Amino acid sequence: MSFEDYFNTIVDNVNKRIEKYIKGNVKELYEASYYLFKAGGKRLRPLILVASSDLLGGERERAYLAGAAVEVLHTFTLIHDDIMDEDTTRRGMPTVHVKWGIPMAILAGDLLHAKAFEILNDSFKGTSNNKISKAFEIFTKAIIIISEGQALDMQFEDRSIVSEEEYLDMITRKTAMLFSASAALGGLIATENEKEVEALAQYGLNLGIAFQIIDDILGLVADEKELGKPVYSDIREGKKTILVIKAIKEAKEDEKEKILKTLGNKNATKDELSAVAEIIKKYSLEYAYTKAEEYMKKAIDSLESISWKNNEAGKALKYLAEFTVKRRK
Amino acid sequence: MSFEDYFNTIVDNVNKRIEKYIKGNVKELYEASYYLFKAGGKRLRPLILVASSDLLGGERERAYLAGAAVEVLHTFTLIHDDIMDEDTTRRGMPTVHVKWGIPMAILAGDLLHAKAFEILNDSFKGTSNNKISKAFEIFTKAIIIISEGQALDMQFEDRSIVSEEEYLDMITRKTAMLFSASAALGGLIATENEKEVEALAQYGLNLGIAFQIIDDILGLVADEKELGKPVYSDIREGKKTILVIKAIKEAKEDEKEKILKTLGNKNATKDELSAVAEIIKKYSLEYAYTKAEEYMKKAIDSLESISWKNNEAGKALKYLAEFTVKRRK
């Protein structure tokens, strides 16, 4: 089976389960809740989850459900983050709060948050009590840490200087935790061996850090249409990405001044944003790519510490780590 | 032991567990999340949960934790509802989004939503796999239905005519479900007997409907200081309470016109609101009290179908149903 077939089978099955669960008779609420799933998305977290389960011989039906749970959870965070960050475009479409208003968007996120737990519960139903408790522990811990990461991200917008260490801590919480939880939950479906589950958690965590660094890079270099959201929005919002942090540290005084003047300025013109982006790229692009590759390699190293029961799944997980760094959107 | 002692012991123990769990090192986020717990609140849902558990001989430590879980969940819904309804005062204090801004209030609600699941997981840890799955099923179902109820409540604001049946369906979802889930979870801690758990669920459901009818009455007749929020805000927001529905149905043409003109008018003066409140009270107050008492009696009837293992708990549950209707805030 080719990677493409392997991944497509997973995505189709996960999507079917999402569609089945995100249905109800309060029309507007369910439309707003289901909207972003129709708009695309890579389903990276379910792919990691199902392949992690496959790697250790887990049941596919349980893995599809747990995959749907993490994707639904991820989508809830996107809807709420877009309100908080005042983002108006996502996946090439207006964000949920732009289309339905902030109250309905808050509610749609809340519904998906609860639905994610409903689906996870069904995924682990009938397994041992320890496994069910562990699954909910991984899931709840992830959401708590993600919320903390989002709070830090917002706090950083109001600070001019943030260290690389603080940035890494923040993206570990905000982004990498859910990748880590996805891989760990996949492992947990197959085994209660803590070492193997922990190795998968490490794989997901390092892949997640690489993913966010690349996301921050793409916010500066990607094609706007391909990305599905405005480039430079990170600069306008004053996001302290690894590229911004490195550039502020390395740039000459006049360049540094330009960066700090434009960063977080909601009225900055496209030309100003573009000029600042060029400065940042000059000092940071290579550095950020190198960092992302380091984390990607750590992720792959983690996989090597596990005895694979399914070679195809192991190769798929390696491919996903590499894809994370190579992707252009 | 007096009722007061019985209830105080529960409230103190539940509060201690809430305090323990709602702690973390991202200062502003945890301050915003913990704020409403300090502002008071009756802890009615934990009281129902722990007494329901007592009634069938459940373990107190598990019940305290599950009680904390439902109170934390309830508080998440309050924070998000206040944003959606643009309410600025709660429990005599500025609402969370007024104090910390909408983004932080959304995030605090999300954190509490996840924390509620974390606490519930700890409450049922080590029980049977069926029990854990059932507990999460009750909990997730409640949140999903609560979200649907809030969506209906918002939709009703934009409609001039809503039937009493639609109102009862809406408050069953928005308010009564969590009372029902609280009683059922309490029962589940003690037993897997489905009939007993279902009887408790019915007790909570009917108590919850009575609770919301009284809440709607208090929004018209309560002392503003005692209530902790502005009276008449329901009229200003255009809420279709049972009192409004009944009054629109029964009032004379000119009175009906006055009601419809003022209902949902954000610029209505205090005098206009007060005049409309008087009309509504004239036609609806007795009717609404009678309805609330009917549901209160149904709740108490449900209790009688269970064989009590703890007389004090049974009496406490009866008292809580009666208190729900008698309360003045």
Task: Tell me what the structure shows.
The structure is a homodimer of 329-residue chains. Chain A contains 15 helices and 2 strands. Chain A has 329 residues and is mostly helical. Chain A has one domain: Farnesyl Diphosphate Synthase. Chain A has a two-stranded antiparallel sheet. In chain A, a hairpin with a 2-residue loop joins strand 1 and strand 2 (93-94). The longest helix of chain A has 35 residues, at 270-304. Chain A starts with a helix and ends with a helix. Chains A and B meet through helix 4, helix 6 and helix 7 of A and helix 4, helix 6 and helix 7 of B.
Brief write-up:
Chain A has helices at 3-21, 27-38, 44-55, 60-84, 96-100, 102-124, 129-157, 164-190, 194-221, 224-227, 233-237, 242-250, 253-262, 270-304, 311-326, and strands at residues 89-90, 93-94. The two termini of chain A are 26 Å apart. With 329 residues, chain A is mainly α.
Residue share in helices of chain A?
Answer: over 70%
Bin the strand percentage of chain A: under 5%
Question: What is the chain-wise order of helices and strands of chain A?
Answer: HHHHEEHHHHHHHHHHH
Query: What topology, given as strand order, has the largest sheet of chain A?
Result: 1-2
Oligomer: homodimer
- Main sheet summary of chain A: 2 strands, antiparallel
Q: What descriptive keywords fit this protein?
A:
79% helix; Farnesyl Diphosphate Synthase; homodimer; mainly alpha; two-stranded antiparallel sheet
Describe the secondary structure blueprint for this structure.
2 copies of one chain form a homodimer.
Chain A: H1 3-21, H2 27-38, H3 44-55, H4 60-84, E1 89-90, E2 93-94, H5 96-100, H6 102-124, H7 129-157, H8 164-190, H9 194-221, H10 224-227, H11 233-237, H12 242-250, H13 253-262, H14 270-304, H15 311-326
Antiparallel strand pairs in A: 1-2
Helix pairs in contact in A: 1-4, 2-6, 3-4, 3-8, 3-15, 4-6, 4-8, 6-7, 7-8, 8-9, 9-14, 9-15, 12-13, 12-14, 13-14, 14-15
Family (chains A, B): Belongs to the FPP/GGPP synthase family.
Protein name (chains A, B): Geranylgeranyl diphosphate synthase
GO molecular function (chains A, B): metal ion binding; prenyltransferase activity
